[in-house]
């Protein structure tokens, strides 16, 4: 779904346009972003007008990003600049990664629901198969969920399909929750036993906020922080199979800057292989300057992340309360910039066709939200709602949902 200037809502210039509550963009830190990013461009040097000091990522951004990861992702092994390679967004990095690792027809396993962009990022060029594992919601974040991965792996093996990798989105999108440490270890054990690559998309790692209504929330744990030698007794986890992807778009509220990175501390061969074609996704100098400048300014960085988390928590609480006051179940979450809501149950239960019809009806009436089917969810009625938009836009979108679906506040 792409909204253009002609169709997108603006209170002054296009009041009848579409309010987007279906794209994971964070507008809560816009003023801070303008000030910090504009100032950062003053750090430009003559070198930035050339190809720079490396065709596969400047030394500046690699050094700044590795330092950030060491400070905030708590890796068991220190991340060094030559452990990563950057590209124009996580989509480009994932495309390059899977094109390098897999052959046409190979399969990747992923828990559903999952980020719909994986359908484009992982398979468009490499012609691989992305296989959803439909987990009951109560098992999605537990080690027991890997039993269904095991069953699907064996099923595909009998069919002659070669499974080569597992991808995890941690924190999870669209459900907005980090995975518990024991579940990450279960993924690592499964991948070691089956000799699979383990890819973790951790783009929301620093967008984890406090949620007073979710006392059982777990903090973000990066796969990089797992000490497999101590925490996986009985097996030797081959660290070269672990690949983490991170980027600027979500935690730093700048989807348009297109900065992503692959971090793979124990696989220099993969880094060198991807470096051969990395010019195809090399960062622009302005984007490189802006993010590296912020990452190197420890005080500003800390304040930025702290403020963003506070605003995410406040916005999430507002939207959650709005839906719950109208009898709509909102799944527990403490990460990302969206909530996962069960509109279908509020309407007395719906099927997939009705879910799609509701989506279209809302879109035709000027509000865009993400239907569960877009995330390959097999339980009808769930939708992803982005809450990190300007409050006046958010209120307009919610008012349209209320009017179209008849969601009046319930009497207390």
UniProtKB/TrEMBL annotation:
Give start and end of each Aminotransferase class I/classII large domain: 58-401
Q: Which CDD domains match?
A: AAT_like
Q: Which Pfam families match?
A: Aminotran_1_2 (PF00155)
Is GTP-binding among this UniProt entry's keywords?
no
Superkingdom per UniProt: Eukaryota
Q: Does the keyword Cell cycle apply?
A: no
Q: Which UniProt keywords apply?
A: Pyridoxal phosphate
Any GO BP annotation:
amino acid metabolic process
- Annotated GO MF terms: pyridoxal phosphate binding; transaminase activity
Chain coiled-coil ranges: none
Q: Which InterPro entries match?
A: Aminotransferase_I/II_large (IPR004839), Ethylene_sulfur-biosynth (IPR050478), PyrdxlP-dep_Trfase (IPR015424), PyrdxlP-dep_Trfase_major (IPR015421), PyrdxlP-dep_Trfase_small (IPR015422)
Q: Which PANTHER family match?
A: AMINOTRANSFERASE CLASS I_CLASSII DOMAIN-CONTAINING PROTEIN, BIFUNCTIONAL ASPARTATE AMINOTRANSFERASE AND GLUTAMATE/ASPARTATE-PREPHENATE AMINOTRANSFERASE-RELATED
Name the record gives this protein: Aminotransferase class I/classII large domain-containing protein
Q: Which organism is it from?
A: Cryptococcus amylolentus CBS 6039
Lineage in the entry?
Eukaryota, Fungi, Dikarya, Basidiomycota, Agaricomycotina
């Amino acid at each position: 779904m792409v909204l253009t200037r002609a169709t997108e809502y603006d209170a002054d210039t296009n009041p009848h346009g579409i309010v987007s509550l279906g794209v994971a963009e964070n507008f809560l830190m816009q003023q801070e972003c303008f000030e910090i990013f504009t100032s950062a461009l003053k750090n430009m040097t003559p070198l930035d007008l050339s190809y720079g000091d490396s065709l596969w990522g400047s030394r500046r951004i690699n050094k700044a990003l590795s330092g950030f990861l060491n400070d905030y992702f708590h890796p068991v092994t220190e991340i060094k600049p030559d452990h990563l390679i950057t590209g124009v967004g996580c989509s480009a990095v994932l495309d390059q990664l899977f094109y390098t690792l897999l052959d046409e027809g190979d399969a990747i396993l992923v828990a559903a629901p999952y980020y719909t962009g994986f359908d484009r990022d992982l398979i468009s060029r490499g012609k691989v198969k992305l296989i959803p594992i439909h987990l009951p919601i109560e098992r999605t974040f537990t080690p027991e969920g890997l039993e269904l991965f095991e069953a699907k792996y064996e099923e595909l093996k009998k069919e002659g399909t070669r499974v080569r990798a597992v991808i995890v989105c941690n924190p999870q999108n669209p459900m907005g929750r980090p995975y518990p440490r024991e579940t990450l270890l279960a993924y690592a054990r499964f991948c070691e036993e089956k000799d699979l690559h383990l890819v973790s998309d951790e783009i929301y790692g620093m967008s984890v906020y406090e949620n007073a209504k979710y006392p059982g929330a777990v903090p973000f744990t990066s796969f990089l922080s797992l000490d497999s030698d101590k925490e996986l007794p009985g097996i030797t986890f081959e660290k070269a199979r672990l690949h983490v992807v991170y980027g600027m778009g979500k935690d730093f509220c700048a989807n348009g800057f297109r900065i992503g990175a692959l971090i793979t501390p124990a696989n220099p061969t993969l880094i060198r292989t991807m470096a051969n074609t990395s010019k195809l996704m090399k960062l622009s100098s302005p984007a490189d300057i802006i993010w590296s400048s912020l990452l190197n300014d420890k005080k500003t960085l800390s304040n930025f992340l702290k403020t963003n988390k506070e605003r995410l928590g406040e916005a999430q609480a507002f939207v959650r309360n709005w839906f719950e006051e109208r009898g709509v179940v909102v799944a527990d979450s403490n990460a990302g910039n969206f909530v996962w809501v069960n509109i279908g149950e509020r309407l007395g239960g719906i099927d997939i066709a009705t879910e799609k019809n509701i989506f279209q009806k809302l879109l035709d009436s000027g509000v865009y939200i993400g239907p569960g089917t877009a995330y390959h969810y097999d339980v009808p009625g769930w939708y992803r709602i982005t809450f990190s938009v300007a409050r006046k836009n958010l209120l307009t979108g919610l008012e349209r949902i209320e009017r179209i679906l008849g969601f009046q506040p319930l009497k207390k």
